Amino acid sequence: MTDNQSEINWKRNVWIVWFAVFMTGVAFSEILPFMSLYIDTLGHFSKTELTFYSGAAFAVNFLVSAIVSPIWGKIADKKGRKLMMMRAALGLAITLFLMGFTQNVWELLALRATQGALGGFVSNANALVATQTPKDHVGRSLGIVVTGFTGGQLIGPLFGGAMAEVVSYQTLFHLTGFILLIVFFFIWFLIEERPMAAPKVSETGTPITWKTLPKKSLLVSIFITTMLIQTVNMSINPIVSLFVREVVHNGHNVTFIAGVVAAMPGLATVIFAPVFGRLGDRIGTKYMIQVGFLIAILAFVPTAFVTSVVMLVALRFVVGISDSTMLPAIQSLLTRAAPEGMVSRIFSYNQSFQSIGSVMGPMLGVAIASVFDYRAIFIISAIIVAANSLLFYFNVNRKYDLN
To answer: Which residues form the Major facilitator superfamily (MFS) profile domain (predicted)?
Structure first.
């Protein structure tokens, strides 16, 4: 541990960041269950129009975030990750609060795009923990951060759905903005960050940029790995309730069961991510990722043939276990591969690829379901995971020693 690391309470940092990303996960996800219903109150739309605008409201956030995230990452490397977390929290608080005042769907879409443009909170949270934590504790610490955001995303829809029964949609947007304002003050007063280090220089003595970045092919391979993981994770989202209805043969409680099925991967991630993050620190992060690929394949293939809800719930839980092995490990690999003066930028690029996967996944799921059927989504997902595993093995495992 360096002197600088001993000057700050990095353990407290981890738990404050955990709380911040947990509340952010709640804020982001609590509005999703009623987004289409809220859009329906903003005009008189046909079923096709409502579906289109609902999809657009979901996608525009991720598309803009994918474009803008690297810009915020570059600024974070110069000005500090804490400042960028505060900027994102305050900007998102204002944006979400204003969504409660929208008068038409175009205003809502503009604010959703603004939400994406002001993002970068989670990527900078990861970068802050990665740079302020001793190297031999990075995996476990990032695993803890993963559980915070994932846990918030699990609780958010339940909280949002319950509150929507009590208050108006507009009030819930205002409440969400208030939650992020609380996050802003928590970061401001409680997070510690060491002074920014001088930018690393290349062998020629000039500051390292993306063009002169060492191990560029390694980082691109990790970005693609992240994108494909997110693609298969999100592919089931548009049809989860329809698939559950098929499995239960139009039985009762389809909505409730679909919610349980959707929650299983996140629940497993909350339970296992810190454990596997700590294990990755001990045995090697890139090996944990390969194990995650194998577990995912073993989960996706049988899911295509499930005949009961119990089997479906169990296999979706296993998908979450695979995420638990991969997500903290990927963040740790990024930390090891990124020069100190570019950590936030590298995490932001990774966030951009993850956002692209968040858009590609639902589109892929809908396309496969339209051409084949719901079950084919899981077979195609297994094939994508297998291809991802081979890409990672040949471009990372065999070429680099980062453990």
So the answer is: 13-400
- The token duo for 142 is 């990032």
How far, in Å, CA of 386 to CA of 292, rounded?
Answer: 11
Q: For position 6, what pLDDT does the model report?
A: 47
pLDDT at 395: 81
Report whether 169 contacts 45 (CB < 8 A).
Answer: no
pLDDT tens digits, 21-62 = 999 988 888 887 678 778 888 988 887 788 788 878 888 998
Q: Any long-range contacts for 61-65 (C-beta under 8 Å, 24+ apart)?
A: 61/112, 61/113, 61/115, 61/116, 61/119, 62/116, 62/355, 62/356, 62/358, 62/359, 63/116, 63/355, 63/359, 64/113, 64/114, 64/116, 64/117, 65/116, 65/117, 65/119, 65/120, 65/351, 65/352, 65/355
* Global confidence as pTM: 0.81
Q: Name residue 321's amino acid.
A: I
HSE, side-chain direction, 13 A CA sphere, residue 271: 12
Quote the distance between the C-alpha of residue 214 and its chain's center: 26
> What tokens appear for 339 in the block?
């020069």
The domains located in the chain, with CATH, are 9-193 (1.20.1250.20), 212-403 (1.20.1250.20)
The set of residues, in sequence order, having a beta carbon less than 8 Å from that of 304 and lying 6+ positions away, is 375, 376, 377, 378, 379
Q: Which pLDDT belongs to residue 207?
A: 63
For 241, the token pair is 């309730």
Check if the beta carbon of residue 178 is closer than 8 Å to that of residue 93: yes
pLDDT for res 173: 92
- pLDDT for the residue numbered 1: 39
